[in-house]
Design brief:
Number of domains: 1
Order of helices and strands: EEHHHHHEEHHHHHHHHHHH
Radius of gyration: 22 Å
Distance between the termini: 36 Å
Strand content: under 5%
Number of strands: 4
Number of helices: 16
Helix content: 55-70%
Strand order of the largest sheet: 1-2
Mean pLDDT: 87
């Protein structure tokens, strides 16, 4: 076969050269686009996205996507987390739903490693594909949410959950956070490349969808992630002119968000729901059977059960959930799995912030992913996020682009393949 039919890639470990068929690469990119474009369809199990993930994994093997040795910590921590969960199944392994829960954890852990491998070369084409596909997925979900909330078509109530928009998800508290990463990609693009009308329309649409989820956790998540993104952008900006633009656009964004909220609250149904959801403490937060009451019980159970309780056992015994992913980690995966999960989150936060400060062509993609991840980590204190698909996408993306950053620095230091003068300028998403 002609050499023209192959693309050449350097393996992530820094060793020789790996040749992968150009056709396999194209098929991999197409599969990545379709998989991510359908990632917002999550109200059916298994979802089309889940089925396509196995196809994507197959295409990664066919395209010879390499595994960099710097991803070994991610692999080890993920395996230990999953091993802790499997050990707890000894107590409840005769129940079908617990087996399915463990299978989902294994699938998502594998997905994070696969995404890390996919992006560990800093392939800008692949990152652009991810961006376009994720934006499409977010727009499809948001459109469904508008159809449901305003009852624009018959049967559109399937996109609602107790008058809150869940769109193509089962839960508004998952739908809202799903929109934050694409919002950050667009906002970072505005601050680095300038505002575009099409992008501004998409941002307004996604912000409206986020608002109509009436998820307090998602609102806090977005505010925190945006603050992190703006702070990091300011820190890495190469010029005073860009820093001035960031300040001006941040102020302008605040005004736009305020106007959007005012416009939406002029609709009676929106205003009534907002008055209910805007209360800092909801009735289900306090008292016996409330969120905080369950969290106190969960802490007691964690201390009494080193091997955890297993999936769904806490809610079966006490009649409710603790709504804290870190407590969930110890309750479902035992002390071993819970400690591994918390370590994985903390290590990701540390390596991500170090990598995002280094100028690379993918810096702004990493910045948006890291900012979204920080918000998701904080939201985990009030919501169980351990089976959120986009959480594991962000996790894998941060690890992958961090590895790409380490390798690019090494190549630059040894003057192999990259020019320190201009080859590593960041590209806005």
């Amino acid at each position: 076969m002609s050499a023209a039919l192959y693309t050449t890639q350097a393996p992530l470990g820094g060793g020789g050269i790996v040749r992968s068929p150009a056709l396999a690469q194209r098929l991999l990119n197409i599969t990545l686009f379709v998989t991510m474009a359908l990632s917002s369809i999550a109200f059916i199990e298994p979802s089309p996205h889940d089925a396509l993930m196995f196809v994507l994994l197959t295409m990664c093997v066919a395209a010879r996507v390499p595994f960099d040795r710097r991803l070994v910590p991610l692999l080890i921590l993920t395996v230990v987390w999953l091993l802790g969960g499997l050990l707890t199944l000894v107590q409840v392994g005769d129940q079908e739903n617990t087996i399915q829960y463990a299978g989902t954890s294994i699938y998502l852990g594998t997905a994070s490693i696969m995404f890390a491998c996919l992006f560990s070369e800093g392939d800008l084409t692949r990152l652009a594909i991810l961006r376009r596909a994720y934006l499409l997925a977010a727009l499809l979900a948001t459109l469904a949410g508008y159809l449901g909330f305003f009852h624009l078509v018959p049967g559109s109530q399937i996109f609602l959950d107790n008058e809150r928009v869940s769109a193509t998800f089962k839960d508004p508290n998952v739908y809202g956070p799903f929109l934050i990463f694409p919002l950050l990609l667009l906002i970072v693009g505005f601050m680095t490349r300038g505002i575009r009308i099409g992008g501004l329309i998409i941002v307004a649409a996604l912000l409206g969808g986020l608002f109509l989820s009436f998820s307090r956790g998602a609102w806090l998540h977005f505010a925190l992630s945006l603050a992190v993104a703006v702070t990091l952008l300011f820190a890495v900006s190469p010029s005073q002119r860009m820093r001035n633009r960031i300040v001006l656009l941040t102020a302008g964004a605040g005004i736009v968000v305020a106007l959007l909220v005012i416009a939406l609250t002029s609709i009676e149904s929106v205003r009534d729901m907002l008055l209910v959801r805007a209360q800092a403490i909801q009735p289900y937060d306090v008292g016996p059977g409330g969120r905080f009451w369950f969290q106190q019980l969960a802490l007691t159970q964690i201390l009494e059960h080193p091997n955890g309780l297993g999936p769904f056992e806490f809610s079966r015994i006490f009649g409710g959930q603790q709504h804290d992913v870190y407590m969930q980690g110890f309750l479902v995966y035992g002390w071993l799995g819970g400690a591994a999960y918390m370590t994985l989150v903390l290590v990701t936060l540390v390596i991500g912030v170090r990598a995002v400060l280094i100028s690379t062509p993918w810096q702004y993609y990493l910045l948006a992913a890291y900012a979204a991840f920080v918000g998701e980590v904080v939201e985990g204190f009030v919501v169980d996020t351990d089976h959120w698909r986009h959480f594991f996408l962000l996790l894998g993306l941060i690890w992958g682009l961090t590895v790409a950053t380490i390798n690019s620095c090494r190549r630059r230091d040894y003057s192999v393949g990259a020019d320190a003068g201009g080859a590593l300028l960041p590209v806005a998403p």
